């Protein structure tokens, strides 16, 4: 029978705290409550996306500024570092207005979700990692989504101006609503969760 590793338990505990932060809109916190209720039940079909991509090499430098941080963001960075060898990697290749080389300059790390550390299909919990000066494409998807930012970086919803959430800040993307993110001079690292 599948048993969840303590490193993953620790990450889920920390992420649960982060996604209940007052910096998240109420709708984002409500979504996260449902996601983490699902996660009380471990489930894994063992299908890990083990292929690595160039942007995976940015993970250490994205985590480094937080490793000595005593807040939940620091806890999250330390937990991700421990999990790194077991993360399932994937890239987005669809959407519009992404920077020219965004495919090479980003990667999505699946922790709980299809092909992830705990491969399952009811929820997704993971992160996006963007190299400096990278714009992720405008995209939309049927499930609503909550984000918590763990670095500098900017977001855009529908046709809004770009805005910076600040480290530990959160966002909620309603179902099928257009959104995007972009990095400045440092890597962008943002946790997300969805109920599928
Ligand atoms: Fe999204």
TrEMBL record:
Transmembrane segments: none annotated. Signal peptide: none annotated. GO terms for molecular function: dimethylpropiothetin dethiomethylase activity. It holds the Pfam family DMSP_lyase. This is Transcriptional regulator.
